């Protein structure tokens, strides 16, 4: 399979179909970069197993003839409680990269989260016209960091998502073994960076080396407080698994916490995100919204997240599968499938909408 029109998406009936198409379309080392996790990939695998352990207790004799997936995220109406997760260097998997993915998100009516390490400049992404959130890594240089926030604001981003679980990149052994290096046409378009990410290293991923050179490993609660003062945009904190951290974040004025273990790509052995979700949701109460990231693969997973206290979810790897398989059309198919599957799951569980889903009981076997 190749890119673009060579792959039809109408025969993709679930996200796993697009995963297989992407695996066939991509070079092996690029697929490893997308699919892999850190260490022994314990947390990567556990994310999926944990979601599959969450069983829903459906209700009956409910009128679901007008079942809707409509919701709000950060106070804005959305047709489905989904946003794209930030994923770096999307031109690795398709020539149009973030541009195509952002167009797909706009067409689906969901927020697109542009990474600091996007391979397309933020201005080109916001020019597409959809809702764009900017995922922000603090850089070692504080002035450069502030300029990056201002640039996102000036470009028209509607929220800032500070990622806090990457003091440095986790040891992703697939990339280490592959001595993974970015091709020349794929660059961190939002930051002035040296050539490190394009230089092959003897026993390391060049992406990890590059990230270690530019990102701050000294991001603290004081950093969060400063960012809250520096921007009036809604602020999300991504990478939270601890209820105590979530409560403190809400008290610090964040608008949402994203319960995430970075898709199993940072601390191997970290708690599966869905297992952390109920305590985090209880800890913040009405203090801020709670989103779930890491492992979402179906509309049923979205329903599970809602029932466990989330306002919505972020979807990362599946969007990249769609992008790799068929560009913008593939990415759009991912989002359409999630919407269709969520509506199906809502109705079959006796819920006429997202608010009813939040009252649904769940059962996790011992």
Automatic annotation (TrEMBL):
Keywords: Flavoprotein, FMN, Oxidoreductase. SUPFAM superfamilies: FMN-linked oxidoreductases. InterPro entries: Aldolase_TIM, Alpha-hydoxy_acid_DH_FMN, FMN-dep_DH, FMN_HAD, FMN_hydac_DH_AS. CDD domains: alpha_hydroxyacid_oxid_FMN. It comes from the Bacteria. Pfam families: FMN_dh. Belongs to the FMN-dependent alpha-hydroxy acid dehydrogenase family. This is Alpha-hydroxy acid oxidase. It comes from Kitasatospora putterlickiae.
